[in-house]
Design goal:
Elements (H helix, E strand, L loop, with lengths): L1 H9 L6 E3 L14 E3 L4 H48 L6 E12 L19 E10 L15 E7 L13 H9 L7 E5 L6 E3 L4 H30 L1 H14 L4 H12 L7
Parallel strand pairs: 5-7
Antiparallel strand pairs: 1-2, 3-4, 3-6, 4-5, 6-7
Helix pairs in contact: 2-4, 5-6
């Protein structure tokens, strides 16, 4: 009984406190002679790392989830239009266009297509329909109106998607700039090599490629990085595999590396 009581005393909370009394003296645990042990530098660093690991893991997990939703959101708004624009193969140099017809229509029946739409996911009951004549030769300032056109009465869109969001896209201003009273007789436009009926007012190869790369690379990079760090910190199998590789590289021969892997696979070595 004395041995068991002594062992229990040694495991009591009083062992985490430092006594200032001389050896052999005794005092009550709540007496001022007892002073709590100050944490060591290693303990402080361990505690700090654990808190840092917890909050960083929380942020990385949130970032990975947001990256997935951002990628799904960018597919219909950036990725798909950019791919369609690339497949359309617009001419690098702007051609010459002139408005042949402008109709302002209302109701869903009359707005089956529109040169401009403010919002790519909504159906509009009011729309501007602009058709143009096209000359497939480079546009020059102050050039005369061509006598002959390569194509006539083509649908004229504000951009390859035919839609956008304010303030970048304003359909009233677009209609006024190209089909208003003060609109020029001829203006630059971009035509497609693979879709002869497609003519747009705004097109930029660099902007299209930049938007596609950013929409694909940024969410993917954030997701892969976050998932890799979380797997390294919290996946026991990944951590063990990484440590096994580090130890295996320190051996000179393949036999030693094989022996080390066999020892790692032995379940009797898993102490913890």
């Amino acid at each position: 009984m004395s041995t068991m009581s002594r062992s229990r005393t040694s495991l009591s909370p009083a062992t985490s406190e430092r006594s200032t009394l001389p050896m052999g003296a005794s005092a009550e645990p709540d007496s001022p002679e007892f002073k709590p042990l100050e944490p060591t530098r290693e303990e402080l660093l361990t505690h700090f790392f654990e808190r840092f690991k917890f909050y960083t893991s929380l942020c990385l997990g949130t970032s990975a989830i947001l990256a997935v939703f951002a990628f799904l959101f960018l597919i219909p708004f950036v990725v798909e239009p950019a791919i369609q624009t690339i497949l359309a193969e617009f001419a690098p140099e702007a051609g010459i266009c002139a408005v042949s017809e402008h109709i302002y229509a209302e109701t869903l029946t009359n707005c089956t297509w529109a040169s401009c739409r403010e919002g790519c996911t909504t159906t509009h009951t009011k729309c501007h329909k602009i058709r143009v004549n096209l000359a497939r030769r480079p546009f020059e300032e102050n050039a005369p109106v061509p006598n002959e056109w390569d194509a006539t009465d083509l649908k004229f869109l504000i951009n390859p998607e035919g839609c956008g969001y304010p303030p970048r896209v304003n359909c009233s201003e677009f209609a006024s700039d190209y089909a208003g009273k003060k609109a020029p007789k001829i203006f630059p436009c971009y035509y497609s090599m693979t879709r002869p009926e497609l003519v747009v007012a705004r097109y930029s190869w660099d902007t299209t490629i930049r938007g596609l790369i950013l929409a694909l690379v940024l969410p993917t990079t954030v997701f892969v990085f976050s998932l890799s760090v979380l797997a390294y910190w919290h996946c026991h199998c990944c951590d063990r595999a990484c440590n096994r590789r580090v130890h295996a590289e320190s051996f000179a021969s393949k036999e030693d590396s094989k022996l080390l892997c066999e020892l790692d696979e032995d379940p009797s070595d898993d102490v913890f």
